[in-house]
Design goal:
Blueprint: H1 2-6, H2 20-26, E1 33-34, E2 38-39, H3 40-46, H4 48-68, H5 73-91, H6 93-96, H7 100-103, H8 109-122, H9 125-132, H10 139-168, E3 182-188, E4 194-200, H11 204-207, H12 211-225, H13 236-260, H14 262-270
Antiparallel strand pairs: 1-2, 3-4
Helix pairs in contact: 3-4, 3-8, 4-5, 4-8, 4-9, 5-9, 5-10, 5-12, 10-12, 12-13, 13-14
This protein binds NADPH dihydro-nicotinamide-adenine-dinucleotide phosphate.
Family: Belongs to the ERG4/ERG24 family.
Membrane topology: Multi-pass membrane protein
GO biological process, one term: cholesterol biosynthetic process
């Protein structure tokens, strides 16, 4: 906050709304840095919390073994499914640079506290629950959870990859084996320059406008279902993710509608649903 006011890295990218609390919450600087190498957004979004997520989960598995002399299949499932998500993050780190957090959000309390406190404490609740309430799932239940988690991950990864490939190749690629359907669009940036862009209407982006979030939600539900039905606490994650991603979806669409105007309306006419076809 202080840096944003007094020593901004790039004064032209600072956002001052006139509301002190909003500035604190949503951030002033777009890409605050110290020197050439330390980038606040990249470091906080991409290092402490996400690494701690896996380490804390592993610690919970060790603690469960210490207390109950074995590790249950539910604990293994939670560890494996969440580790896949984290490994994916590092494996596809360049893709991550194109997400809303990096491309559009400014760096303030929302990102900093969210990454360093919220993520490692709240995303590990299932593991913590299983330490004190060990759950051993029946084989069909465990297989069902595993399949839901893997299908969710598949949708999440493929949908994000489709958009990334489409944008990287400027539409010169194949989506589900075919030339993609495209909506050509244009927008004016703050400096008054006119730019052109493209919206993908094929693959998962033709199913719903944020089907990548649906994959994420399926994975999140799988982590919770791994804890059985004994308590509401481990279900906190899916409730939170549903709120986060629905709000994110509306926030993003609001931004896209003001950025692309009528071109965005053409996209919403071609792909009428946000998350679930026929429902929302
Ligand atoms: P997206 O990757 O969906 O990016 C949205 C942006 O993509 C839009 O602002 C627009 O940007 C562009 N876009 C929208 N529609 C199209 C289209 N049809 N064709 C081409 N470009 C389009 O959003 P996020 O960054 O929020 O999410 C990335 C992933 O990260 C998701 O899978 C999400 O589930 C996950 N995530 C996970 C979180 C967690 O805590 N576990 C938190 C947040 C996200 P432009 O201006 O460039 O056109």
């Amino acid at each position: 906050m202080v840096k944003g006011y007094f020593f901004p890295t790039s004064a032209r990218d600072c956002k001052f709304t006139g509301n002190f609390f909003y500035n604190y919450m949503m951030g002033i600087e777009f890409n605050p840095r110290i020197g050439k190498w330390f980038d606040f957004k990249l470091f906080f979004n991409g290092r402490p919390g996400i690494v701690a997520w896996t380490l804390i989960n592993l610690s919970f598995a060790a603690k469960q073994r210490e207390l109950h002399s074995h590790v249950t299949n539910a604990m293994v499932l939670v560890n494996v499914l969440q580790a896949i998500y984290v490994i994916d993050f590092f494996w596809n780190e360049t893709w991550y640079l194109k997400t809303i957090d990096i491309c559009h959000d400014h760096f303030g309390w929302y990102l900093g506290w969210g990454d360093c406190v919220w993520l490692p404490y709240l995303y590990t609740l299932q593991g913590l629950y299983l330490v004190y309430h060990p759950v051993q799932l029946s084989t069909p239940h465990a297989v069902g959870v595993l399949l839901l988690g893997l299908v969710g991950y598949y949708i999440f990864r493929v949908a994000n990859h489709q958009k990334d490939l489409f944008r990287r190749t400027d539409g010169r690629c194949l989506i589900w084996g075919r030339k993609p359907k495209v909506i050509e669009c244009s927008y004016t940036s703050a400096d008054g320059q006119r730019h052109h862009s493209k919206l993908l209407v094929s693959g998962f982006w033709g199913v719903a406008r944020h089907f990548n979030y649906v994959g994420d939600l399926m994975g999140s539900l799988a982590y919770c279902l791994a804890c059985g039905g004994g308590h509401l606490l481990p279900y906190f994650y899916i409730i939170y993710m549903a709120i986060l991603l629905t709000h994110r979806c509306l926030r993003d669409e609001h931004r896209c509608a003001s950025k692309y105007g009528r071109d965005w309306e053409r996209y919403t006419a071609a792909v009428p649903y946000r998350l679930l076809p026929g429902i929302f």
